[in-house]
Amino acid sequence: MNLRARAGAWFYSPDPSPPWPLVVMAHGFSATKQMVADRYAEVFTKAGVAVLLYDHRGFGESGGEPRQQVNPWAQARGYRDAIAFATTHENVDSARIAVWGDSYSSGAALVVTALDTRVAALVVQVPALGAEVPSNDLDGSAREAMKQMVHTGSVKPAPDEVHGPIPVVWDDQDQRPSALKPETAFRWFNGYGTRSDTN
Q1: Range 18-21 contact pairs with CB under 8 angstroms and sequence separation of 24 or more
Q2: Would you write out the chain's pLDDT as a tens digit for each of its 199 residues?
Q3: What are phi and psi of 143, to 5 degrees?
Q4: Which of 52, 53, 189, 195 could form a disulfide with 25 if both were Cys (CB 3.0 to 4.6 A apart)?
Q5: CA torsion 161→122→197→188, rounded to 10°?
Q6: What is the rounded CA–CA span in Å between residue 14 and residue 44?
Q7: 101 Cβ contact list (under 8 Å, min separation 6)
Q8: Buried (b) or exposed (e) across 93-111, using 16+ Cβ within 10 A?
Q9: CA 80 → CA 16, 65, 166, distances in Å?
Q10: CA-CA distance, 171 to 164, in Å (whole number)?
Q11: Can you spell out the DSSP letters for 119-149?
């Protein structure tokens, strides 16, 4: 899997004089930056914080194939690439970089924050971290395996890890199952994802 792809991103500059603290933001499960994350970016900017908001690889305005395939390891690498890019901006204080994750991307944000010393703060909103609590990592081997995967491991999913294509949400789970089943997800995606400007 080739991870090289153009990222569709927006940079928000606050009013105070630089150097600025920065929040690196990405949307949650199969969403796009225009669905709601842009509103959070505007609030951060009004508070004097710069924001780099981007679409995950394969979603929205970002390039990459396959399209609309949620891959948490590729998303973790996307956060790291966004951090690396942000630190090249002359007005960004590279000692004050935060990572923001929403829903499913909260997992990638947590992993990156645990493994990347460039991250000074973390914000996760409605974190979705999997169906089961992981076992204790007494010897640190799970952490090392995650670190290897995020830094250099193959992020190509195994055939049994690919589910779909299937709809993100659907109103009748008996007739057509979807990736997200709660009614709240159905209402959210239909309320925000059906607007023409959300990609």
Answers
A1: 18/90, 18/91, 18/92, 18/93, 19/91, 19/92, 19/93, 19/96, 20/48, 20/49, 20/50, 20/91, 20/92, 20/93, 20/96, 21/48, 21/49, 21/50, 21/93, 21/96, 21/97, 21/98
A2: 666 788 899 999 999 899 999 999 999 888 889 988 999 999 999 999 999 999 999 999 999 998 888 888 899 999 999 999 999 999 999 999 999 999 889 999 999 999 999 999 999 988 877 778 888 999 999 999 988 888 887 888 888 888 788 888 898 888 888 888 888 888 888 888 888 887 7
A3: -60, -45
A4: 53
A5: 70
A6: 8
A7: 26, 28, 107, 108, 109, 110, 122, 123, 124, 125, 127
A8: eeeebbbbbbbbbbbbbbb
A9: 26, 19, 28
A10: 17
A11: EEEEEEES----SSPPPP-TTSHHHHHHHHH
Structure tokens at 67: 């399209």
d(CA 174, CA 171): 9
pLDDT score recorded for residue 2: 65
Q: Two tokens at 169?
A: 């949400």
Sheet holding 50-54, edge to edge: 9-12, 50-54, 20-26, 92-102, 119-125
Q: How far apart are CA 57 and CA 156, in angstroms?
A: 13
**Could you tell me which of 130, 153, 169 has the C-alpha nearest to residue 80?**
153
The number of residues in the chain equals: 199
The token duo for 136 is 């204790």
